[in-house]
């Protein structure tokens, strides 16, 4: 076994020990296929108010411009599928936001993995990323064989569906590279048919500016009135396209204690949400991604849903 293969195996074993679902490796190079897609997405203003997506265009497509001297992109998946979900007929929070903010959880694990690499292999430079820098996470995960990008533009695997986070280490070490997998969406259009706001404008294209997650998290202004009655009680994020996906029948509960929800979160009724105070909000979402929308934002979302009633 050569060094590249040996080091790659070593990294994958440690990733598994750290609790990652899977680990794939690809060569750090320009993402040729993604360039025209990203250009079209931005040109058609599908990013809405998410202006940060217009920044660092070159770095988004080329990791060597982001991390000098980089040779490999190590992609990792971390499962967040809960073993219990919220009660029926309540205002809903996306499953990814039930527990501690994933940025902290994954970053810590990625840093541990990077420390392991430098300790076991030697002087290796690199950086850890998870959804907070100009990196096309799903494209890299697909390139390294961890799954395929589905018609809802989320990464899918035959074994465990799509309820997981994606993170990367971009490092200056040459490794053995994995090959992409094939697309298994077939003729299925369940995600497209189920989206209440028609945000999936065509297979493999999501107009971010029409997505319920965008309205309830990213948008800071008023939610446009033309979308009234279309939110299906989602007050933070949305899981509809994932919930209807046939591959998610294979989702298994995560084993990360930090992703467990606040004990009261799952049992809160619509009335509880309507009467939520700032203190309760702070307690419920102490380290949660829901903090991004702030108390006022969540109240705005709940009020928008209340007005949806006939």
UniProtKB/TrEMBL annotation:
Binds 2 [4Fe-4S] clusters per monomer. Its cofactor is [4Fe-4S] cluster; cob(II)alamin. TRNA binds at residue 220. Keywords: 4Fe-4S, Cobalamin, Cobalt, Cytoplasm, Iron, Iron-sulfur, Metal-binding, Oxidoreductase, Queuosine biosynthesis, tRNA processing. [4Fe-4S] cluster 1 binds at residues 185, 188, 191, 245. Pathway: tRNA modification; tRNA-queuosine biosynthesis. The active site is at 131 (proton donor). GO terms for cellular component: cytoplasm. [4Fe-4S] cluster 2 binds at residues 195, 211, 238, 241. Its EC number is 1.17.99.6. Monomer. Belongs to the QueG family. PANTHER family: EPOXYQUEUOSINE REDUCTASE. This is Epoxyqueuosine reductase.
């Amino acid at each position: 076994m050569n060094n590249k293969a040996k080091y790659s195996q070593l990294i994958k074993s440690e990733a598994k020990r750290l609790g990652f679902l899977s680990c794939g490796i690809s060569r750090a190079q320009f993402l040729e296929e993604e360039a025209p897609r990203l250009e079209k997405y931005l040109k058609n203003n599908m990013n809405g108010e998410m202006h940060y997506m217009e920044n660092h265009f070159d770095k988004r497509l080329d990791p060597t411009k982001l991390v000098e001297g980089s040779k490999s992109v190590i992609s990792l998946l971390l499962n967040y599928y809960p073993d219990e979900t919220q009660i029926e007929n309540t205002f809903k929070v996306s499953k990814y936001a039930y527990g501690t903010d994933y940025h902290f959880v994954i970053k810590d694990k990625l840093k541990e993995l990077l420390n392991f690499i430098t300790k076991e292999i030697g002087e290796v430079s690199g950086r850890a990323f998870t959804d907070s820098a100009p990196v096309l996470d799903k494209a890299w995960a697909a390139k390294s064989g961890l799954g395929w990008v589905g018609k809802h533009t989320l990464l899918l695997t035959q074994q465990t569906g799509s309820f997981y986070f994606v993170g990367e280490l971009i490092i200056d070490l040459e490794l053995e590279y994995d090959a992409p997998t094939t697309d298994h969406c077939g003729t299925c259009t369940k995600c497209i048919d189920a989206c209440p706001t028609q945000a999936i404008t065509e297979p493999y294209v999501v107009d971010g500016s029409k997505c319920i997650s965008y309205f309830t998290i990213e948008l800071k202004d008023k939610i446009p009135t033309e979308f009234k009655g279309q939110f299906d009680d989602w007050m933070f994020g949305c899981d509809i396209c994932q919930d209807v996906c046939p591959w998610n029948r294979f989702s298994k509960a995560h084993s990360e204690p930090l992703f467990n929800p606040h004990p009261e979160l799952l049992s809160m009724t619509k009335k509880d949400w309507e009467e939520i105070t700032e203190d309760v909000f702070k307690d419920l979402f102490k380290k949660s991604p829901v903090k991004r929308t702030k108390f006022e934002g969540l109240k705005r979302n709940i009020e928008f849903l209340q007005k949806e009633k006939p």
